[in-house]
Amino acid sequence: MGIRLGENQYGKAEVRLVHVRRDTDVHEIKDVNVTSQLRGDLETVHTLGDNTTCLPTDTQKNTVYAKAREWGGVGAIEDFALRLARHFVGEHDYVDGARQEIHEYAWERITTPDGPHDHAFSRRGGETRTTVVTKDDGGEWVVSGLEGLTVLKSTGSEFHGFPRTGYTTLQETSDRILATDVTARWRYIGVDHDFDAVYASVRGLMLEAFATTHSLALQQSLYEMGRSVLEAHPEIAEIRFSMPNKHHFLVDLSPFGLDNPNEVFFAADRPYGKIEATVERDDAPSPGNAWKSVPGFV
């Protein structure tokens, strides 16, 4: 029986970088978390401990910081990830592939009586913008998205007509709270896009579809969110969702002599339904290695 080294990669995980643009009195903040991983001629590194083709992970970390300065900031996280991947592959002949994953944390200007403050910010909720860029001999792929986008509808949602068994206790409803934490990833066709503008548009379209769809199931809301994005953005091949159903159960107040006309709910954190699906184009180009490096979306 033979033994051999399988697929592998290595790098520096979660390099925290905050860049402040100070070219005017109105500062701009970019707060990101970068994970850099490289692939290449690493056989002897693993089998013999020969490090001649092993670019230190510390060097990868330092490169992230240095390039943020040399390139005048981060810009769109997709563009920053593409430039990092091209740098690592182009500058080191023993590196033939790179994976750059970036999470961005949004900050908003604090509002004062004189308007938005020039250099004071507050962190915006738990929502995170993401991208994973993969570069190898086969090409370049960009998968972007968001996670932790919490949304809720207090009406306009139903759930009924489902099969019943001897273990079914859930009651049908024509009026319920629908809430979820949206994790979405979308695969771009090509890499030459205004990524900031597309992100803002995709986020807005998903929110609008969630709000305006009279939902008979969370699955239906998910599909409408994806459909609206693909109809508006031909540069996106597919969009994948993972959306927990954050259950809100009506509290029985009858023991206290009170009615409850859909006003008082118990918000359960677990267990929860977990809805996952892909909305894609019939003619979408092959994904290549795009999804291979995206955690949780294989």
UniProtKB/TrEMBL annotation:
Coiled-coil stretches noted in the UniProt entry, renumbered to this chain: none
According to its UniProt record, in which pathway does this protein act?
Purine metabolism; urate degradation; (S)-allantoin from urate: step 1/3
Q: What is its EC number?
A: 1.7.3.3
Q: Which residues cross the membrane?
A: none
**Protein origin, superkingdom:** Bacteria
**What reaction does this catalyse?**
urate + O2 + H2O = 5-hydroxyisourate + H2O2
**Classification via PROSITE patterns:** URICASE
**Could you say which residues form the signal peptide?**
none
Function, as annotated: Catalyzes the oxidation of uric acid to 5-hydroxyisourate, which is further processed to form (S)-allantoin.
The protein in question is named Uricase
The coding gene here is: pucL
